[in-house]
Design a protein that fits this description.
By secondary structure, the chain is mostly helical. The chain is 67% helix and 4% strand.
């Protein structure tokens, strides 16, 4: 079980590279307007014109979808980007903005994850358990702050990396607690 604890403490750093949060909703992404084009050709039959126009409309919709995907990727950040994006020009006035606090939570999460890994490698399971609990609290706190600021609509912006990160931390907490209890019962 100690090997599993080490594995999950290492995997935190891999999971942190997964997309966690989209900084803007799909509704707020500026949409490029494509003019509806219609092919008019008096030499073609009505059926041929309909086929050409349908093909053109399909191509236009594909362009819109590709543009939306590109913008989504541009505005989606992983845990590292969330944790270290707000510190380029940090001044006291920044603490008045609520959006800084989730950034601080992710920064603390990453720093505590280094300690979790260190103590997992040293097999100090009590500390792994405690720091993992703190990490879980920080992850939940970061989203609660965003929920308080932006409302329930923000839930659509949470990506799979955040949920995998939560699951990873929960597994680490459960495994370390089981190992702690097993060590106490064996002594």
């Amino acid at each position: 079980m100690k090997k599993l604890i080490k594995f999950f403490s290492i995997s935190i750093f891999i999971v942190c590279t997964f997309p966690c949060f989209q900084k803007c909703s799909d509704d707020s992404i500026p949409k490029r307007h494509y003019e509806d084009e219609i092919i008019i050709d008096s030499t073609s039959s009505a059926e041929t014109l309909k086929f050409k126009n349908d093909s053109l409309n399909h191509l236009t919709q594909q362009n819109r979808n590709l543009e939306l995907e590109r913008v989504r990727k541009e505005w989606t950040e992983n845990a590292y980007e969330l944790g270290f994006s707000g510190f380029r020009k940090l001044v006291i006035e920044d603490f008045k903005d609520w959006t800084l606090f989730p950034t601080l939570c992710f920064t603390s999460f990453i720093l505590l994850s280094i300690l979790v890994l260190f103590f997992a490698l040293k097999e100090c399971l009590d500390k792994v358990y405690k720091f993992s609990l703190l990490n879980l609290g920080l992850l939940i706190c970061s989203m609660l702050i965003l929920l308080a600021k932006y409302g329930i609509a923000i839930m659509n912006n949470i990506k799979y990396g955040y949920y995998i990160l939560l699951l990873n931390i929960l597994i680490l907490i459960i495994l370390s607690k089981k190992e702690i209890n097993r060590n106490r019962n064996s002594h």
